[in-house]
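Hey everyone, long-time lurker, first post.

I ran two proteins through the pipeline my lab uses and got sequence/structure pairs for each. Pasting them in order. The first:
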Amino acid sequence: MLHVRQLAKRHGAGPDATPVFAQVDLSVAPGEFVAIVGESGVGKSTLLNCLAGLDAASAGTVHVLDTDLGALDEAAQAHFRRRHLGFVFQAFHVLPHLSVAQNVALPLMLLGVPRAQQAARVAQELAAVGLNDLGERLPQQLSGGQLQRVALARALVHRPALILADEPTGNLDPETADRVMRLLADQTRQHGAACVMVTHSAAAASHADRVLRLTATGMHTEGGHG
């Protein structure tokens, strides 16, 4: 589902360029959940942006579904992201003026899915994350854990091939974080998606199938979790 080869990122150009990371190799299979940890400032979020084509890598390649993201122009990249990628962020990024159901439906709206199909898919996804009775509520009426489950439902509603999660439990208490992580892991496997999460939390990383450490000189295995 995801194949990364010799990915590198530098800020600036020429001899004054500042290296962020280099020699990153990564492959993630359908249904596999990989956590990436690393020191603050090593570029974990930058790596996710490179995997999504939101930030151009300085070297190397990223293939999602056998598509080389670096070979696509900006418009084609945007269309590819909309169709095949799902994002979960620490800050939730839900739209306050839309209801829970409308927030979850956004990826389907952008893809032009018919309204009746949207409603059915949204209802299914809200039920999967335990929010089936809250579709008409506004985000400000929800707790942080509920908002993160809204974000998770939105990331999965269009059945993406690749889910990218950036510190998804950073704003949650430990008990709520554990529930969200179990949902993320279970939904990834049920949908047959590949999931890459960056986190500083050992508890969050423990839910992954593999834990990798990002360093300035590549990716290294931390350990496995079943």
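...and the second, right after it:
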Amino acid sequence: MKVIIAVVVAVFSLASIVSSQGIPAPPDVAAPPDDATCTETKLCTKILSPGTGTEHPDPWDTVTVHYSGWTIDGTMFDSSVTRGKPSTFPLNRVIPGWTEGVGLMVVGEKRRFWIPSELAYKNQPGRPAGTLVFDVELLGIEDKPKPPDPPPVPDDVAEPPADAQTTKSGIAWKILRPGVGAEHPKKSSTVTVHYTGWTTDGKMFDSSVVRGEPVSFPLTRVIPGWTEGVQLMVVGEKRRLWIPEKLAYKGAAGAPQGMLVFDVELLSFE
């Protein structure tokens, strides 16, 4: 079993020498050196100091790290070292370059990543752009159970089938499994659901089922298509919703685009 391993080494001595301007960029920040190793995805890495562990984190594990990040012009944009506090997060909830790169490491190891834009923030507005460089030290791994496999893509994901019904606002829906209750949530309700979402080309972009953990939220705090669609349901029901873009993310940068398809199971509501 992997456990959280506290590795208190030179991390805090590093923090003590960091100036107010941040940590100086590595001399090879502009491009991977000849002794770096690159994967098929074009992620390049170089081990700065070897670790003491033997196990690698899985994508669904939670890791604790110290890190600093620079753009290739040497500008530092983030650092847990300067904050003096390690960061802990599920490895599958970060940029793909981190998920892949940290998965190569063992506890106690320090490694430098050169992460191409397509594995980072894809030049989204307000995010660090281009290839990003990180120095990462893996401090610990918390073993998590492997999540369920992703649900299969619906056969009718591209458009609502003939037997789907449509609301006045344009949401199409189809009951996949009837519920056992008779009462519907109100707009002011807080609901607990399991769900999976796809774009109409069949790409899954989010799933509480895969994470293995239901989600609770007020119906007033989600996209309009969810606010309306979940109010049609009863507890125990599973329903497929086709939500037009105007009731989803309205073309917002960085959000799923176009009409979205959700399978939603209503577990309870308050």
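Reply from user beta_strand_b:
Welcome! Quick read of the second one: The first helix runs from residue 11 to 17. The domain at 11-142 is CATH 3.10.50.40 (Chitinase A; domain 3).
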